[in-house]
Each structure stands twice: as C-alpha cells, then as structure tokens.
Automatic annotation (TrEMBL):
Residue ranges of domain Mur ligase C-terminal in the record: 299-418
Protein name, UniProt field: UDP-N-acetylmuramoyl-tripeptide--D-alanyl-D-alanine ligase
EC number: 6.3.2.10
Keywords for this protein: ATP-binding, Cell cycle, Cell division, Cell shape, Cell wall biogenesis/degradation, Cytoplasm, Ligase, Nucleotide-binding, Peptidoglycan synthesis
Gene (name only): murF
Annotated organism of origin: Marivirga lumbricoides
Length: 431
C-alpha cells in the first residue's frame, strides 16, 4: 500500500483520475469506487487493458499483482485523501460555495466574472458531493490562478467533510432555504449544515462573502470581522421593469447591466458574482461585461423560444423556495398568458404535503393563467387549486396536450425536482 505522497507522484504522471471505464482516457489513474448498484473493482483489469496507468482497488480478490494494482483499504477514502494532499500543494485562493438555491448558477457567474482577470477553475456540472468534490480538486493543475468548489449537502456534517478536502480560503453561502429539509431533519439542521462552511472559514482565518438579504446569513456575519457583504446600496440593485419582460437587469448609479438570466430572483446570484469579482480586483467594467454575456444552460433559468411559445426551462431541480420565486418571476416578468407546468418536489419529509399545497396556493394567488401539475406528491395542491389540471405522469399530460393545446404566445414555466425530468416535455412545444 503506497503512502499518499507516492500515490500523488503517480497521479502527477497520469492524465487524470477516472472512476468509470466508459469514460477512461489513455494514461488515467483508475479508482475502483463502490456504490449500492456498482463495484468498480470488477472493472479494474479492464481499465488497465484499455490504457490506465494504474488501478486503485480495495478488494484483494481483484489484485493481479505487480505495480499496476494498488490495493488499499478503501478506494473512496484514498481518493479523498489524495485530493486533500493535492489541495495542500496548491497556492491559490479556493472559494467554497454552498446554499439551498442558486449554487450552480452563482458558481458559473462567478467563474465567468473572475475569468476576466484570472484563469479560474470551477466545479464542472454538479460534481458537488463526496466523490465530486475530490474529483474537482484533483482537476486543478498549476496553471489555474483561482478555484471555485461547489458543495452540496442533505445532512449535517457533509459540508464540514468537504471543507477538510477543499480547504477553502474564501466562502459563500447563497441562501438558507428548505431544500432537502426532509433529509436534514428540519430547518435548524439545514442552518447547521450550511453554516459548516463559515465555521471552517472562522477557524482558519478565511473570508466569507455574506448575503445580507438573508436574515440567517446576516446574523452569521456577526462572527466575522473580515466579512465581505453584498448587495450594497452603492453597488447594484434590480432594474425595473425587466428587459423585454423576461431578462434580469441590474443598475448602478451610472450603468445598466443586462443579462440573459430569467427572473428577478437571479439578482442575488449576479450580485454575489460581482461582489466576489470586485473583492479580487477584477475591473468592474470587465466583470459586468462577463456576466452580461453569460448564457444559462442545463435547465437553470433558461429561456427557450419556440415557434409558438416562450419556455422558461428551470427544470433541473426544485424546492419550496425556488418554486415560489420561479412562479413569481414568471408572473412579474410576462404580459402574455402565463402557464406553469409543475412537478413533485423531493426530500421534504413530513412537510411534503403542506409544501405542495402551498405551491397551488401561490400559483392561484399570483394569478397564473393556466396551471398544470404532474406527479403523485404535487396532487396535494388540489386542496388549494380547485381549477388546476392534475396528472399522474408525463404521458397523461402529453395525451391531454394533444387534445387541448396551450394557447400560442403563452409563456410556460417548467419547474420540478430532477426526478421529474420535465425537460422531456420540450419537444411537444417545439412542433
């Protein structure tokens, strides 16, 4: 069993880490990770045959001997330890980011703004868990001048464990909301879990960026003498009305920043990115131009124009807070007929029925013209929305659409948890 320095030397000779032989590249170092439905040890020999420099395994029966097989007690733990060791070799600012909503959008906006001055690494996609965080750290080479590491969590202690690997020098919590409240076991535990990033910064003289519009985060600011706050009155504020009825604008005393982001709720994500860029002395004009060119993707606040409809695809995920602001954004930004197609919200525990009821109430109270609900959990909205249309699944809804097409010219919001995969409906609006 090699020590971590030896493993790190081997890693530096490799072309990167691989945990899936289907994505293996020549010269990769393969880690045989395990999960409920897979065992990477089964594919170790295949990885070598297909060009891996070596394989890290944790089951002796798959050890064929020689230097190419590295047997350890726990491959995942070794991956995390390797990432922690690699992080210690990096001499760059590392910004940790977590929060209930807006993590990925804020991360991407921040990378875009910082890249106007620095070569900036950011977590790719949503690699923000116990495997994704170490993989992200190990993807940072010595050409990068800055790094942003996204950290997701659904239980207490998770963010703390990621901080031990990523060792952030700076940190940002987008907000504290009800995401994963069932898994966390209540709102108080969400606060505890998300605040672990700030706990780490406090103990290690790190610098937090604090969203003072969030009461819980504003209260945490008191623990720091070096907190950087946003939004500040002299910096940015939301423009009104929105550009073209859909896209977010920000104003300063002398300038207007137009974005490609849908919804007023994205203001805080942009403000966070511009705050961080300003702290690291990115020229304001360059940072503003960078966020103005940012194009949302992956079903996050994405506007898709078809022949007959404007579709706000915000279907990557959903929780009570993001659902509410998305519906508000639709209504406040649009003069045409507004339509919501909403799916189940997952991981809400005993609050699930109540929170789904509230979704119906919000949609009705805000005056959404047409309201469609798809899924078993969101059926609870029937109690508060007597005239909405409810469907067990997407197939039922598609069959309904064929007989009752939505009025041309409507703006449609697609919003639901990842399990719903509401983006599957998009082709039916593009015909």
């Amino acid at each position: 069993m090699p020590n971590i320095d030896q493993l790190h030397q081997l890693f530096l000779k490799s072309t990167g880490i691989c945990t899936d032989t289907r994505k293996l590249k020549q010269g990769n170092l393969f880690f045989a990770l395990k999960g409920p439905n897979f065992n990477g040890n089964l594919f170790a020999e295949k990885a070598l045959n297909e060009g891996a420099i070596a394989v890290v395994i944790d089951e002796p029966e798959y050890d064929k001997g020689g230097e190419s097989f590295i047997l350890v007690e726990n491959a995942l733990k070794y991956l995390q330890n390797l990432a922690s060791y690699h992080r210690d070799q990096l001499r760059i600012p590392v910004i940790g980011i977590t929060g209930s909503n807006g993590k990925t959008t804020t991360k991407e906006l921040m990378q875009t703004a910082l890249s106007a001055k620095f070569k900036t690494f950011a977590t790719r996609g949503n690699l923000n868990n116990h495997i994704g965080v170490p993989l992200s750290i190990l993807a940072i080479d010595d050409t990068f001048e800055m790094a942003i590491i996204e950290m997701g969590a659904n239980h207490v202690g998770e963010i703390a464990s990621y901080c031990k690997i990523a060792k952030p020098t700076h940190g940002l919590i987008t907000n504290i909301g009800k995401a994963h409240i069932g898994e966390f076991g209540g709102f108080e535990n969400i606060v505890l879990g998300k605040s672990e990033l700030f706990d780490y910064l406090k103990k290690n003289n790190g610098i937090p960026f604090v969203n003072t519009n969030d009461a819980v985060l504003k209260n945490m600011q008191k623990r720091f003498e070096n907190a950087v706050t946003y939004p500040n009155e002299h910096d940015y504020y939301p423009a009104n009305p929105l550009t073209g009825g859909v896209f977010l604008e920000l104003e300063t005393a002398t300038n207007v920043v137009s974005t490609h982001l849908v919804g007023q709720y994205n203001f805080m994500n942009v403000a966070a990115a511009l705050c961080v860029a300003k702290f690291f002395e990115v020229p304001e004009e360059a940072a503003e131009e960078a966020v103005a060119t940012y194009q949302p993707k992956d079903m996050r606040s994405q506007l898709i124009k078809t022949k007959h409809y404007n579709i706000i695809s915000d279907a990557y995920n959903a929780n009570p807070d993001s659902m509410e602001v998305a519906i508000k954004g639709l209504v406040s930004a649009e003069n045409s007929e507004s339509v919501v197609i909403l799916g189940d919200m997952m991981e809400l525990g005993e609050l699930s029925e109540l929170e789904h009821e509230k979704v119906g109430e919000i949609a009705v109270d805000l005056g959404v013209s047409k309201r469609f609900y798809i899924g078993k959990l969101i059926k609870a909205a029937k109690k508060t929305d007597k005239f909405g249309k409810f469907f067990e699944n997407k197939d039922e809804f598609i069959a309904y659409l064929k007989e009752h097409p939505i009025k041309h010219g409507s703006t449609i919001l697609l919003k639901g948890s990842r399990k719903n995969a509401l983006e599957d409906l998009l082709p039916y609006f593009e015909e």
